Amino acid sequence: MLLRAFLFVSCCLGLLPVSAQVLPLPAMQTANVSVSGLSSGGYMAVQFDVAYSASVMGAGVVAGGPYYCAQGSVAKATTICSCTGTPYSCQVAPGGTGVNSLIRQTDQNAANGTVDPTAGLANHRIWMLSGTADTVVPQAVMNDLQTYYRHYISTANIFYKQDLPAQHAMPTDSYGNSCGKLGSPYINNCGYDAAGELLKWIYGSLNNRASAGPAGRFIEFDQSEFLPDPTAHGMAASGYLYVPPGCDSNSGQGCRLHVVFHGCLQDAGTIGDTYLRHAGYNAWADSNRIVLLYPQAAPIYPMTNPNACWDWFNYDDAHYAQKAGHQMAAVKQMVDRLTGGAAPPPPPTQCFTSSNRDHVLAGRAHDSLFRALANGSNQNMGLDNIFIHTTLKRTGPNFYVVGSCP
Q: pLDDT value at position 6?
């Protein structure tokens, strides 16, 4: 699930019906930023926590690994940092990630200014979980993550749960597959509320989670504002924001912000709204005024990133683990919008020329009875295939017209 770089995923479930239209990400004034993630999202959470340590207060990591573990190598990502390569290729072993070299690389990046100074990590609150049954990211990798963080952070600030008989999945206490199962949607009912526990560790004492259904609202927002042509870089056209009661009317003043990075094959294009609604975060957000940012990765076909993983192994960008990395910088701009109160600029005009099939896969168009229709304008582009090429002009969030740019 973490990488499966050689598996071609061709069937998607369509986008989720959590909002009526795609909007710009609203300007808010939240504070106390933290991050968490599962699998590739766990690696992304660690990258973000380290690279932007001056503006993040903590991280929750489920089945992830130490910063820069893959060192830009797919081979290391699939054999040393996880067991996701070809059969029998797994080389995961205690200390196998080379923590000392990763620490040296972190310190060098900090000295070069490509990540924040490591002193910013000292007061971070780190929550970790590794299932005893995890065959995708075995505990030896998470043990190395603990060693890595202990170099910068006192043991009192690090919690590590390693006795849950969970497979490679997000553990909950009410939803999902059986705890030991490996399979979609990679959410397992283990009688353990991982989302709640990590939020409580990072933020301290919290109100009990809301017992009713979600009381807040989802906003589907345009990610291309933060990364032009996001699907070319492994990010979806849309991301999602969950705004709980009490954070809407005052632009989020007095509300916290938590960024949730999904794992591979958990993006909205693959499993709809399942992860957004059932990973366990929303009920805690409702009762504790925590705004939730759910950025979305997307597949790049056929072999680069077919499973919508986050870039933690250099499938898109050699600077993927630094502040200048495409995905890292895009999410940081989203965080800045939600914490700094900056008004959204008007969306730029962009043109994309590609086959009708690629437009549909990239989220610029949709299929209707084997014909491609431009999103927003619903203009007919012709048959949905790889042979007909069309130029689409983006004139607003998820709004495209057939035409050309000067």
A: 30
Shared domain for 209 and 282, answered yes or no, is: yes
Residue 346 has a pLDDT of 52
> Exactly one of 34, 53, 124, 134 is catalytic; which is it?
134
Q: What is the DSSP letter of 148?
A: H
The domain tally of the chain equals: 2
In sequence order, the β-bridge partners of residue 393 are 351, 401
User: 49 an active-site residue?
Assistant: no
Say if residue 328 is in the same domain as residue 185: yes
Active-site residue 134, yes or no?
A: yes
pLDDT value for 5 = 37
Say yes or no: 265 and 357 in one domain.
Answer: no
> What is the bridge-based pairing of β-strands 217-222 and 22-23?
parallel
Examine the residue annotation and report whether 124 is marked as an active-site residue of this protein.
no
Q: Is 373 exposed, middle or buried (0-12, 13-18, 19+ CB in 10 A)?
A: buried
Give me the pLDDT at residue 341, please.
Answer: 55
Residue from 168, 233, 258, 359 carrying the catalytic annotation: 168
pLDDT-flagged residues of the chain (< 50)? 3-17, 19
What does residue 100 show for φ and ψ, rounded to 5 degrees? -60, -40
Exposure class string for 12-27: b at 16+ Cβ within 10 A, else e:
beebbebbeebbbbbb
pLDDT of residue 311: 98
4 in any annotated domain? no
Residues forming beta bridges with residue 297, ordered by sequence position: 235
Q: What is the pLDDT of residue 342?
A: 55
Q: Which residue in the list 34, 36, 39, 82 is annotated as catalytic? A: 39
